[in-house]
Structures are given as structure tokens and as C-alpha cells.
Specification:
mainly beta; Thrombin, subunit H; 6-stranded antiparallel β-barrel; 9% helix
Length: 314
């Protein structure tokens, strides 16, 4: 099944997975990536994705969680469908701390199914693979579900290779974004084990030989310099390209930079939603990952050092 995905967040977001602190503490070389990835998190509940006016005049509001059907708990859309064989239904709905019951006919319940979800999906950029531990990191920041307005609790997650089909350029005050396509029946690239403040992390399950890039040293924070660097990302299909940037500020483990590459500026207007996680390289060493853009100045971006990202701290 072909699935069109837009980044669900208001700014550029990255994926992060949970690893033990020792898993990355000893990493000396990482493979810089830059591929666009589709991200899917399976949630342990069913929620309403859009406001829905019911025939009885009541509303299902965006973010409401459906907990039970006729007194039986439901944790997925599929399980909810299995409860809709009764003629008359009572649906238990939780909104924040309030719980209410809604009576619907079977037909009315089936009509609301298109507005229900049990997963969060979107796109981001793969940051690195550790060739020794076979673990990866992406996004550089936490995934926030745009409907729930919170980092979602999830039972499992997957990442897939995504191909860029269209770009909406950024302009001052209007963040652009990538529109990507993934094949949901494709082989998944890896699992998602954690969604943390520094990104998503998990186990890499694909063949490392498919990467054309070699492992490189991680640059120490004190060695990062103001000036020229490169950003790896995909803006056409699944091809990763290197684009010129200038690092303009270094503060603790966070950076600011300006996009100077003419091709990237012409194609994207600067930084896009979905570009978070793009690796930054300086003098052949791994510096960090893009995390955010400046909405009023989309040629300007923010990044986290890879050393800090590896700490996986919230």
C-alpha cells in the first residue's frame, strides 16, 4: 500500500531510540546517513484525529480517546471494528480527565471509523548508524503527535526508506516541507525503541553494505569551528547529497548555521520540515544533526552535536 506522508510536527523533527548509555559511549566512528525515512509508531489506544459531529448533536473532539465499546476495552482500530457487530453501541470516550458515554447505532459507529487512528506517522531524516552496535539514531529531537500535542506512548515502531516526491519551499514565516512516499510492505530498515528529547533510536535491521558512506570519526565539541561545513540530506527521490552551510554559532552542545548552498536554497528555500536529523560534517568528521529551523529566517537552522545526541537524555 502506498502511503503519502507529511511531517506531523510544526517544525523539523527527528526520530530517537532508547539504548543503554554504554552502547554509544564507546562509539568512535559512525556512518553519516541523510536518507529520508518514514516513521510509524503503533499506539496502545484509539484516538479521534478530527472533530466529528454526531447525529445526536454531540461532538467527538480531536484528541478524544475511545476506551471501550459496550463495556469491552479496545486498544486498536482493528479491535474496535470487531466490536461493531451489535445493533446498538455504547462507546466510552475519554477527554483529558473526563469520561463520557455515547450511544450510537452500528451504522453511525461505522461512519466515524475514517476519523479514528491508532498510530502516529511522519517523516524525518536518518542521522547515523553505529557499525559496531548496529544501532541507529535519527531526528535529533522528540516526536510530538500533532493531534495529541504530546510525545505519544507507543507499543512498537518502525522506520522505512522514503522517497521525496515533492517539495514545498520554505519562505519567511511559512515553513516548507517534504512530501514523501514509502511502501508499507517494503522491508523495514529498523525498529524504534525510544522517542526521546534527542531523537529516536533503535536497532538497524538492513544491510550496512547498502550504504555508500564510510564510518567517520566523531568531532569533539572543542574542535568544531565557525565557518564552512556540509549538511547531508535528500531532496529528490532517495538520493542523499551534500550541501554547503556555514556554522555561525557554537554554544555548549548546540549549533546555529546558515544554508549557503545555491542548489539547496533554490530548491527548498532553506531548511524544511522533515529535514531534521540531517547529518552535519566538518573537515571529514561527524559534527551533529539538524534539529530545527528559524521560522522567520528559513535559511537559518539549529543543530545538536552528535556527542550530545548520543547521551539520549530527555
Amino acid at each position: 500500500m502506498r502511503c503519502h506522508l507529511r511531517n506531523l510536527l510544526t517544525l523539523i523533527l527527528l526520530s530517537v531510540l532508547i539504548f543503554s548509555p554504554s552502547a554509544y559511549a564507546s562509539a568512535k566512528k559512525l556512518i553519516p546517513m541523510g536518507e529520508s525515512i518514514g516513521i510509524q509508531l503503533q499506539l496502545p489506544f484509539v484516538y479521534v484525529a478530527h472533530d466529528v459531529l454526531l447525529p445526536n448533536g454531540q461532538w467527538l473532539k480531536k484528541g478524544d480517546v475511545i476506551t471501550k465499546v459496550n463495556g469491552e476495552q479496545v486498544s486498536s482500530v482493528e479491535k474496535l471494528k470487531q466490536r461493531l457487530d451489535a445493533k446498538d453501541l455504547t462507546i466510552s470516550v475519554k477527554q483529558k480527565s473526563d469520561q463520557r458515554e455515547i450511544s450510537l447505532t452500528n451504522e453511525q459507529a461505522n461512519n466515524i471509523l475514517p476519523f479514528l487512528k491508532d498510530e502516529t506517522d511522519g517523516i524525518g531524516t536518518l542521522t547515523f548508524i553505529d557499525p559496531e552496535s548496529k544501532q541507529y539514531g535519527a531526528l535529533g529531537h522528540q516526536i510530538i503527535d500533532s493531534v495529541l500535542n504530546a510525545p505519544p506512548e507507543f507499543t512498537n515502531g518502525s522506520i522505512y526508506l522514503a522517497s521525496i516526491e515533492q517539495i514545498k519551499k520554505s519562505s519567511p514565516g511559512n515553513p516548507g516541507y517534504k512530501i514523501s512516499v514509502i511502501e508499507k510492505n517494503d522491508i523495514r530498515l529498523g525498529s524504534i525503541k525510544s522517542n526521546d528529547s534527542y531523537g529516536i533510536f533503535g536497532n538497524w535491521e538492513s544491510n550496512l553494505k547498502q550504504s555508500l558512506r564510510k564510518p567517520i570519526d566523531i568531532m569533539h565539541v572543542e574542535d568544531i569551528e565557525l565557518g564552512k561545513a556540509q549538511l547531508y540530506t535528500a531532496i529528490e527521490g532517495s538520493q542523499v547529497e551534500a550541501f554547503d552551510i556555514d556554522i555561525i554559532k557554537i554554544e555548549d552542545n548546540f549549533l546555529q548555521f546558515i544554508v549557503t548552498d545555491k542548489k539547496l536554497l533554490e530548491k527548498t528555500g532553506g531548511i524544511l520540515q522533515g529535514m531534521s536529523g540531517s547529518p552535519i560534517i566538518q573537515k571529514g568528521q561527524f559534527v551533529g544533526a539538524v534539529t530545527h529551523m528559524f521560522v522567520e529566517q528559513p535559511t537559518k537552522g539549529a543543530a545538536i552535536t552528535v556527542n550530545e545526541m548520543l547521551k539520549k537524555q530527555p
